[in-house]
Amino acid sequence: MKRVTRLIDTFWVAAEESVRIDGGMINLEIAFRAAGYHGYYKHKRVPIGPCLFISPFNFLLNLTVHKVAPAIAAGCPFVLKPASRTPVGVIIMGEILAETDLPKGAFSILPAHRDGADIFTTDDRFRLLSFTGSPAVSWELKKKAGKKKVILELGGNAAAVVDGDQTDRLDYVVDRLAFGAFYQSGQSCIGVQRILIHADIYDALREKLIAKTKSLKMGDPKDKKTFVGPMISESESNRLAGWMESAVTSGAKIIAGGKVDGAMFEATLLEDVKRDQDLYRKEAFGPVTILEKFTDFGQALETVNDSDFGLQAGVFTYSLTNVNLAWDELELGGVVINDVPSFRVDNMPYGGVKDSGLGREGVKYAIEDMTKLHLMVVRDAPKPAQKAK
Length: 389
Known about the structure:
The protein is of the alpha/beta class.
């Protein structure tokens, strides 16, 4: 129900933003030669053109509507290829849209396997490609996209930094970390994969987090008491198990969880994972989280930045100095203070840098990509000469 509510919220935001596509003035008189010239710009209400959308299997309704709703608001026709493993929810959404007053040909939903996207990607009739999914697939699609604009919302190995001044709210921090790490069985691009804890509180937070992790019920998602359900496939579970085994072989320790049975992967904590391991460097996309200790906040930020990804991070601290330092120094799309990086509201700018993608979603920002900026320059007409009296 929550996911359907967010879908509705996103459509409401798009409806509101559709009447805010405005413009402004530019001061052109920055040099003598430009005296008497005035600049105006507007987002032209004619859309950028047909768009191609490729959506992922996780959060299938919400992540899909972040493409669909802005396109409708901007007036862009679109073709949507839902994830091949989870197409049904998107098809149902399409059936509902088909009952609205949208004009014929406004959209098409075409389920297909991943390879089926190639024919769309290379089609020059599309003016924009928006893809949400894995980095390995996305950069290849970008190479094939030709002249069209490309928006990529990709993966991450998001970190949460817990400062040493959090002694009075460890239970809150633990609850949020467990949610960020293991909700949706860790299958979120902003799921907490790395937790950096100040040495002053490392032992206390570690023990609480171990207890919390062990308390999470694994089982059937239809059971309301279940917190950790299956991963999307047994092959994905096996991949992550292989990364975990490699990390343990190289010296890491499993301090909670670690059991794997087919697609069921127990909520798992590790420490002492070497930074050259796949489990540390790549996107786990499963219920596995790494703990590590720090003594200097600035060095902790450098550790967060030591990643090929840069989507979001969370920072728990009371220090305004450290808040601003994190905001200034972290190389990513967004930093969430006093909460986990998994936090997202549907009208905020959302996206990353490095291997986490290109561009921003969040309805207003997607509409900007789907509309054109047009400039008009007006020169003051010379005043007519006055006749002599």
